[in-house]
């Protein structure tokens, strides 16, 4: 057996070899780190940007931060631009095309030229319908593909809407002073057909399930313009309700659950379960400035007490037709939207966000009068101006 004298040099040699290997590994790590840092420096990678871009907003499914370098995103036209946040995408309609934009990457994920002269879009779930108002065609798409296009309707399309299951309700002009309301499913099977005599349909609506429907007709009674809102269910032969609005112009019909908002130029009403009418703001109590809907379909509404007033009020009206939040605005806004439990108001010179539940001001950003729309999604605010989609930072209000 080796004695202690022969073991000691051997142990020293082993320790020396281990130390040498350790020094080699350390220097390799140092050299590799230097190389990586140099590459990142060359490509000007922002570590904070990397960290932000892997953190996602759980509510909207949109990455919390977007690199400024991918915006502005150029559009093919500056005319008739409509932007609708749909799921975690931006659905953009122009007079030339429709585009599904991934707001995180700034990349077009789907889109086509539609060739419509007067395109109007409605969205629900992952579906959207575009109709050429006054012409004989409409189309149904999802966020990833075209489902179908009806290019030869029997007569001009007046209006249309879509349900979350892909069912489409549309109204056609049907002879002199007549309209035809039809509901079809995504396979184009007919579910409902109802001819309306003596008036034209100006708006239609269908709820997310594709079962509850409504349409607004316009006629003249004793030299007074009368808008009548009719409600009907798919599968029924008779209407569930009929509600007249004398001297008022209906601006929109929209379901939230099984309940229907009726937004007029001078009032807001709510129809519960197809037959119960409730006045949120009575006739001539308000002057409608602008409105939009939350991701849950609830109404966000801006109004003034009289038409020329600069002082306006921002109201959040829940699905039961109750005003839950009111905010006094010192300026007349151009546009309003809502997402992430906030309301975003576009003024001529700034964008301001408010809490949906409390009305508290959350933040703001300067802008100029060229901005025509603003949507805050997660931590970014997407704006439209001229012929581009851009982003701007909303700075939190100091407490």
The low-pLDDT segments are 35-64
Shape: globular
Average pLDDT figure: 87
- Strand content range: over 45%
The helix content, as a percent range, equals 10-25%
Strand element count: 33
Radius of gyration: 29 Å
Structural class of the helices, strands and pairings? mainly beta
Number of helices: 2
Q: Report how far apart the termini are.
A: 80 Å
Largest beta sheet, briefly?
5 strands, antiparallel
Strand order of the largest sheet: 26-27-28-29-33
Report what the structure shows.
The protein is mostly beta strands. 12% of the residues lie in helices and 50% in strands. The chain has 2 helices and 33 strands. The protein has a 5-stranded antiparallel beta sheet with strand order 26-27-28-29-33, with no helix packed on it. The termini are far apart. Residues 35-64 have low confidence and may be disordered.
Keywords:
single chain, 399 residues, mainly beta, five-stranded antiparallel sheet, four-stranded antiparallel sheet, globular
Summarize the structure.
It is built from two helices and 33 strands.
Architecture blueprint of SSEs:
Blueprint: H1 4-42, H2 47-53, E1 73-74, E2 82-86, E3 89-93, E4 97-102, E5 107-113, E6 119-124, E7 127-132, E8 138-142, E9 146-150, E10 157-162, E11 168-173, E12 178-184, E13 190-197, E14 200-206, E15 212-221, E16 224-233, E17 241-246, E18 250-256, E19 259-264, E20 268-272, E21 276-281, E22 287-293, E23 299-304, E24 312-317, E25 323-329, E26 335-339, E27 342-346, E28 350-355, E29 361-366, E30 371-377, E31 380-385, E32 388-392, E33 395-396
Antiparallel strand pairs: 1-32, 2-3, 3-4, 4-5, 6-7, 7-8, 8-9, 10-11, 11-12, 12-13, 14-15, 15-16, 16-17, 18-19, 19-20, 20-21, 22-23, 23-24, 24-25, 26-27, 27-28, 28-29, 29-33, 30-31, 31-32
